[in-house]
Design brief:
It is a single chain. With 132 residues, the chain is an all-alpha fold. The protein has one domain (5-59, 73-129). Helix content is 67%, strand content 0%. The protein is built from five helices and no strands. The chain has helices at 5-31, 37-45, 52-56, 79-101, 106-129. The longest helix is centred in the N-terminal third of the chain and has 27 residues, at 5-31. Residues 9-125 form the ThiD2 domain.
């Protein structure tokens, strides 16, 4: 694997977003709704990322220019808003990972493509659970 610090930093950040977004929704479904959909999310969150430690080496969260929250990120009106924003975060990061891994690891790229479509389907089921 050829080293590409900017790309690896992008991958690292999006792995974190993907897992964090899923974890928020997973915990809400688990503890607030006792929903078996939480298990589907847990399975997605545990996608194996080959050579993960290679991406972490390029992490620079201290100097991230977009670290400060914008106003729309600081407030949620409901649990549904929390769920939707975190599902979108996970879906978007899955797309970034899918595209980034196309440059050198098509198998992992396809895993994130599959995860993204699974998240789209789960979103529909979760919104039904919420009565939306």
């Amino acid at each position: 694997m050829k080293t590409n610090p900017p790309l690896f930093r992008t991958i690292d950040a999006n792995i974190n977003r993907f897992k964090e977004g899923i974890r928020v929704v997973e915990d809400i479904l688990r503890y607030e709704f006792n929903s078996p959909l939480a298990k589907d999310l847990k399975n997605l969150r545990h996608i194996k990322i080959p050579e993960y430690e290679n991406y972490v080496k390029f992490r620079d969260s201290i100097n991230d220019i977009l670290k400060p929250s914008i106003q729309s990120e600081q407030h949620r009106d409901s649990l549904k808003d929390v769920i939707i924003s975190n599902l979108k975060r996970a879906q978007e990061s899955a797309r970034v990972l899918e595209e980034s891994f196309k440059l050198f690891d098509i198998i992992t790229s396809e895993k994130f493509k599959s995860a993204r479509y699974s998240l789209y389907n789960l979103e529909k089921e979760i919104l039904k659970l919420l009565g939306t």
